[in-house]
Amino acid sequence: MKLTVLVDNNAQGLCGEWGLSFLIEEGDKKILFDVGESDLFLHNALRLKEDLLDLDYLVFSHGHHDHTRGLQPLIDYYNKHELAVPQRPGVVAHPEAFCSRKRSNGIEMGPLVTEAELKENFSVNLNSEPVWLTEKLVFLGEIARNNHFEGQDFFPGIETAQGIIDDYVIDDTGLAYMSPAGLVVIVGCSHSGICNIVEQAKEICGEERIFDIVGGFHLIKPRTEVLEETCKYLKDLQPEVLHTCHCTDLKSKIALAGVTNLEEIGTGSVLEYE
Questions:
Q1: Which long-range CB contacts under 8 A does 168-171 form with residues at least 24 apart?
Q2: What DSSP letter does each residue of 220-272 carry, written as one string?
Q3: Which architecture characterizes domain 2-272 according to CATH?
Q4: Domain ranges of the chain
Q5: pTM for the whole structure
Q6: What confidence tens digit (pLDDT) does each residue in 9-41 have?
Q7: Which residues make beta-bridge pairs with 186?
Q8: Which of 40, 164, 219, 224 has its CA 20 to 30 A from that of 14?
């Protein structure tokens, strides 16, 4: 499997933004995981000479703006190239990923493309259960939040048809790749808890070994307990390597580097696995 970082907060030779987008190639399948905040992922893909006209899947980690706002530019790009809907990638996401996340102050925190518009432009699989994209790569579905210290944060004041509610981002999920050396877990923001996600990946794949965890860990000014318990979990887990990016602050990276083999990653990085 090959993973190319098209968008991250940090950049290596390309432009970055507050967002995330990974291009994943596994076997004969190409998967775009999240699309960042803007059309930047398209520009970076072109600079890297990566073709996004032959994608098999478009997968969303969750429905926040910094992971979905590149969707309209992608639709425009496909329309410009006259790519018919049957030739476009199939979308895989949680059923709540394309719900409105408008705050009570009127600010929309979610995607600008509605679910109806999504279905006009792609074949869509909105699923809370695991979905196998290839024999070795699986979409993890809705994450069980079993750890008391994580996955409990919420965004207050979200307007819904049922009124104003707290948003626990139940659509937050990830991918897992079964490499010979153990699982590679790929995440967006980990609102559901990075340890919860890893545990679900292990259960779905029937594999206890973790080779790498790539993506955002939702550790921006975390509570002391959250950071301490996460570090304790990862120290016990002992993944071969850790590539934390987006939605992870410097203090948290330093703490993680104290208990794991943390390596640099940013826009333009390429990771390859057997």
A1: 169/62, 169/63, 169/64, 170/94, 170/96, 170/142, 171/62, 171/63, 171/93, 171/94, 171/95, 171/96, 171/97, 171/142
A2: SS--HHHHHHHHHHHHHH--SEEEEESSB-HHHHHHHHTTS-B----BT-EEE
A3: 4-Layer Sandwich (3.60)
A4: 2-272
A5: 0.97
A6: 999 889 999 999 999 999 999 999 999 999 999
A7: 175, 214
A8: 219
